Amino acid sequence: MDRLEAALKTHPGLKRPKNEDAVGGEATPWGGVYVVADGMGGHRTGEVASRLAVETVLARLSREEPPSPKDLLEALEEANGRIHREAQRPENRGMGTTCTVLVLDLPYALVAHVGDSRAYLLREGNLLQLTEDHSWVAERVRQGLLSPEEARTHRWRNVITNALGSFPQARVDLLGLKLRPGDTFLLCTDGLSGVLEERALKEVLAHFPPAEAAERLVALANEWGGPDNVSVAVVRVPEALPERQRPYALPLEAAKGEPVRLQVGEVPEELTTQILEPAPKRGRVGWRDALLILLWVVVVAYILLNSLRTP
């Protein structure tokens, strides 16, 4: 495989009258951008929110030059602003959407995430959940108050604590990592992750190309009841990856291939040297440090003067 492979699939499921999910993607000269979103707030408003999220992100990021982590964050902020303004209308109260974005800037990947849709990475036979759910039950699991099994069946499992459009400012998780040949990504709404166990996801991703994997995953979710809208994006990176430098730096772990949460703004974007090494931090001496240094010099001078005195 010497090129990027990707497949998108969405289905209303078997219990919902309308599909409030949205999924989109586009290959680019430097890699690609892929998005899944799960709208909320009613049949019309949920559909509008998810569509606005996908359209805004793709329009902002699908261009000739690869985006930086800051660009990715700004795309989500722009989508959040558009949805939040729409949600101020009385007929749109409660409108919002989850949104999970994968940017492949070969040989690197960036992931942005809001809500309880998910991004997974299949690497060398192991399936890793890259994102953390922004939901009531997920927070209780992280606190040790619920087990993962209890969370899957809890009556509040669909209560999310963060969504695009819910607040004036977006709260976005950002991750980065260096790719390895054959890495496969799965973006999905909870219509899939809430129905199928991870071992089923891994088996399908490991044994089928993206187009067939997407079809099979959606079909399996519907075979298990199809309780919700289900959307997936399956993306497999090439075996031969380019070696490039980027005008942004990644933490050392991410540059070696480990998924790492990014804090935008900590590393200057103008850094263009050695993406595989963390940027050196230049310390600034404060007045307390200067005072301590001065006192140290005075004490040393006093000791030296006393030692030089003749009895």
Automatic annotation (TrEMBL):
SUPFAM superfamilies linked to this entry: PP2C-like
Keywords: Membrane, Transmembrane, Transmembrane helix
Transmembrane segments: 290-308
Family annotation (Pfam families): PP2C_2
One function term, GO molecular function aspect: protein serine/threonine phosphatase activity
InterPro entries associated with the record: PP2C, PPM-type-like_dom_sf, PPM-type_phosphatase-like_dom
Record carries keyword Kinase: no
Entry annotated with the keyword Transcription regulation: no
Chain positions covered by the region annotation Disordered: 1-24
Domain PPM-type phosphatase: 5-237
Name of the featured protein: PPM-type phosphatase domain-containing protein
Species name: Thermus thermophilus (strain ATCC 27634 / DSM 579 / HB8)
